[in-house]
Specification:
Elements: H1 18-33, H2 45-82, H3 88-99, H4 118-123, H5 125-144, H6 151-158, H7 170-187, H8 200-224
Helix pairs in contact: 1-2, 1-8, 2-5, 2-7, 2-8, 3-5, 7-8
């Protein structure tokens, strides 16, 4: 794989994602368990409830998938740091941590422009590694507190480790927002009061719509985990 320079966009992602294969298996298991297939058109409340349960559980699996991608990045970055190396994701996290105080007026004076020069990072590695450890711990808490898969949720956990807000297609982002909203209607409402009747084909299609974007996220991880030195 060609070396990834700071600021480079994705060139060639890995060919396949093991995580998304496992996710597809899990979604298929849920469909079988809840007797959801593309031909299911509910004839009563019991079948509507099954489709709603499938939607909520699918949402949970997708959320877990995205969080596991970030946790993997943090774990490897932490291990690399213990060996005296910093990953591209780690450097992005350092930048985020240094600039983050700007978001709050009362802490903005504590913000500092992060080090970009590789020579500076190397010469100040001891202090930087301590700062990175705190940044990793802070982001773990951020991931643990995540409660959705909408674009805002994705940005909160993905952008600090190196994903750009333009990384995913607008179609993927729209479909993630849609799944998050539709899951919310079930989780925070009554399944007996529906404005539109769900179908097996429609619920299964929700996952097919977002699968390519989920796969791309995991396939990009090895590039973010390349060390700076």
């Amino acid at each position: 794989m060609a070396e990834l320079q700071l600021g480079d966009s994705i060139v060639k992602p890995c060919r396949r994602s093991r995580k998304v294969i496992d996710l597809k298996v899990r979604i298929a298991e849920l469909a079988v368990s809840l007797q959801v297939d593309k031909n299911l058109i509910p004839q009563g409340q019991a079948e509507i409830d099954r489709l709603h349960a499938f939607r909520v559980l699918m949402h949970a699996e997708v959320q877990h998938y995205l969080e596991s991608v970030v946790i993997q990045i943090l774990d490897v970055t932490e291990n690399e740091a213990s060996a005296g190396r910093i990953t591209h994701a780690g450097h992005h996290l350092l930048i985020f941590q240094a600039m983050n105080p700007l978001a709050v007026p009362r802490t903005s004076a504590k913000a500092s422009y992060p080090q970009f020069a590789l020579s500076d990072l190397k010469s100040n590695w001891l202090a930087t590694s301590t700062f990175l450890g705190k940044a990793i711990d802070g982001h773990r808490k951020r991931v643990k507190g995540n409660n959705g898969i909408k674009v805002g949720n994705m940005n909160t956990i993905l952008l600090p480790v190196g994903f750009r807000d333009t990384f995913f297609t607008s179609y993927f982002r729209d479909k993630m927002d849609e799944l998050g909203e539709q899951r919310g209607r079930v989780a925070h409402g009554s399944g007996a009061l529906v404005s539109s009747i769900p179908t097996g084909r429609g619920e299964l299609q929700r996952f097919l719509d977002i699968e390519p974007g989920l796969s791309l996220a995991d396939r990009y991880v090895p590039r973010l985990l390349q060390p700076l030195w």
